[in-house]
Amino acid sequence: MMRILILFLFFSISASAQVDGIFYFAVTDGVGNKILPSAYWKVSASIKDGDLLPIQFSETDTAYIIALPKESFNKLLQIQLAYSAGSYTGIMNVYGKIADTNGNGACNTCAITNMEYRPGNFMLDLPYQQASWDFLDTINCAYGDKNYTLKNISMLQNWSEPNLK
Question: Each residue of 30-41: pLDDT tens digit?
């Protein structure tokens, strides 16, 4: 009986850690330099209820990759980029909806190849019509032992700060 309980717990833990989608993004500063992890930069990702999501930096692509478990679907993703030097701290929040498929204003396998850092709050512009998703370029990304084909939504982003009242 104890073995069955341990086996059940093992499968429960591994199932909850399953990655069902990814969000890939590369960040640049105001002059086009890639922002890499350092003592000055903190990059985090969470879903609306506050649970942190795993985030990994790819040295090969100089990009950040957020693992999206099924539990995060139909929730709001928040990416926070914080820059701190001396007494200055600047924070950029980027919000977007996560879904089980790309469409209806949400995504689960998306990429932004050039996100320019600007302090403020920004909402991802995501297509609602499937035909719009079909026109987007794709990029390939390996995460863990799986390869993902990501829709590149870079061209859709104008990075204007919306009124989030």
Answer: 888 999 999 899
